[in-house]
Amino acid sequence: MLRPPEGRRGTRPTTAETWSDPGRWLTAIVESSDSAVIAESLDGIIMTWNAAASRIFGYTADEAIGMPIFRLAYPEEEESIQIVLDAVRRGERIDNLQTSRRHKDGHRIFVSLNLFPIKDEAGAVVGIAKVATDLTNRKNAEEIEARIRIELLAERKYRDLLHHAPDAILEVDDRGRILIANRAAEKLFGYEHDELFGASIEMLVPEANRPDHANHRAAFVKAGKARPMGYGRDLNAKRKDGSEFPVEISLSPIVMETGVLVVAAIRDVTERRRSELQLRLLQEDYLGELSARQQEAERLNRLKSEFLASVSHELRTPLHTIIGFADLLHEDTDHTLTGRQGRFVENIRRDSEHLLALINDVLDLSHIEAGGLAVHPRELSLSAVFTEVMDALRTTWEEKALNVTASCDPDLQLLADPTRLRQILTNLLSNAIKFTGRGGSVQMRGTKEVGFALIAVEDSGIGIAPEELSNIFSKFYQVGVTTGGVREGTGLGLAICKELVEMHAGTLSVASQPGVGSTFSFAIPLL
Description:
- 45% of the residues lie in helices and 24% in strands.
- The protein has helices spanning 15-19, 22-32, 51-57, 61-64, 78-89, 136-164, 183-189, 193-196, 210-223, 270-331, 339-369, 382-392, 394-399, 418-434, 466-469, 493-503, and strands spanning 36-40, 46-49, 94-102, 108-119, 125-134, 168-172, 178-181, 227-228, 235-238, 244-256, 259-268, 378-381, 403-408, 413-416, 441-448, 452-459, 482-483, 486-487, 509-513, 517-525.
- A hairpin with a 5-residue loop joins β1 (36-40) and β2.
- α10 (270-331) packs antiparallel against α11 and α12 (382-392) crosses α14 (418-434).
- The longest helix has 62 residues, at 270-331.
- The termini are far apart.
C-alpha cells in the first residue's frame, strides 16, 4: 500500500517541508482516490496497490503486490488482458475500457480502465500505470432498470394482447375473486369492468352448478395443471341478464408467491352447438334414409334371386326335355337320320347343354349372393372325388388326346361338402381341358400339409396374360380367348369357384405364364 513519506525521524514535518515534498501529496491523493491505482511491471507483475484497489478487488496490498495481474482475469478473459498489456508496452494509451474482472471471492465485477505507459528519462517504457473505476453498482442498477423496463413492456404487451383477444379471458385468485377481465369478457357476460373486478367467479356460473363449482376450482388449484374445463361434459355460463349459454373453457394455473392464480379462456360455442345439432339431425336423417335404401336393396335382391330361381327352374324343365329327346335322336338306333340331320341334333344337344350350364351358373351365383347357398361339410376321400371328376370329363379330354392324371394320397381325408368340392374341381378341370391344346397334359394334385390339404389343377395350356390375372375371378369376366370369334363360357365359373372355396374357409389362387400353362390351387381343412 502506498503510504505518505515520513519527515525527519522523531520530528513533525513543517509546512514548508510538506509543500516542498510533492511525493507526499501524490501518495495522499492516490490513497484517498475512489478508483484503484495500480502500477505493474512490463510482464504484468503488480508493483503498487492503493486502498481503493483493495476495496474493489478484495486483495490487501500485501497479497496483491508481487501477484500477476492475470490473477484478476475473469475466466476466459486472460487473452484480452494480454492484448491490452501489449498495446501499452508499445507506448499506447487506453482510455475508458469497460470490461470485467474477477474479485478475490470469485464473483464478477465490472470496471472502467485507463492505462498508460510509465517511461524513464530516455522515453523508454519501463512500467504500466492503471486506474480502475468500479462500475459494478452502476451495471447492477442499469440491469435492474433494464429488467424493470422489460417487465413493464411485457406487462403492457400482455395486457394489450389480453384486452384485444377474441376470447373472453378472466384471471381469478385462489379464493375465486376476479382480478383481470378483458373487453371480450365484459361484452360476453354483459358486465362493466368495475362490476367484474373483485367479484366472485361464481356469479358467472349457473345456479344449478354453483354448489360444486367451488370444489372443482379448489381441486384444479391443487393439481396445478393446465387442462380444458369439464372435459366430456357440456358447460354453460350465465350472463348479467340471467340468460345461460354454452361455453368452452380452458384453464391454466399461474403459481405466484402469494398463491395460485387461474387464467380462464372462455369461448361462446352457441353457434357450434347449433351446427353440431343440425349436423347430428342430418346424419340421423341420412342414416335413416340409408337404412331404408339398404332394406329396399335387400328386398330387390331377394326379388331378383326369387325371379332368377323361378326363371331358371322354368327354363331348366323344358331344357332337360330338349336334351333328353336330343340324346334319343342322337342315338338313332334305327338309322333313320341323315348325316345332316344328325349334325343338327348334335348342335341342338350341345347348345342346350351350354344354355343349361349357363342357367345353373346364374342360379348358383344368385343363391350365393342371397346367402341361400350353404355348404355341408362331411368326411370324404379326396382320391375318390378326383376319380369321379375325371370319369365325368373323360370323353372330353380323350377327344383331345390329353394326358390327364391325378396324384393323391389314398388315405387323405377331408372335411368338405362333396357336391361343392366336385363342382369346384369339375369347373377347374374343365377349364384346363378347354384351354390346353391337343396332346397336352393336365394334372390334379392333392398334398397333405399341416392342418389342411393343398389341391391344385395344373395344365400345359395357353396360359393367361399378366394383365388379365387380377380380373380372372371377377363375375362375367372371360379371358381373351375365342373360338370362331366367339368367347367361350359364361364368365361365372371361376367366380363361383372362388365363392365356394371361401365358403370352405380357403382361398383360390392362380399362377400362370402365357404359352407355358396355368395352375389353380386352394386349400381345404383336414379332419
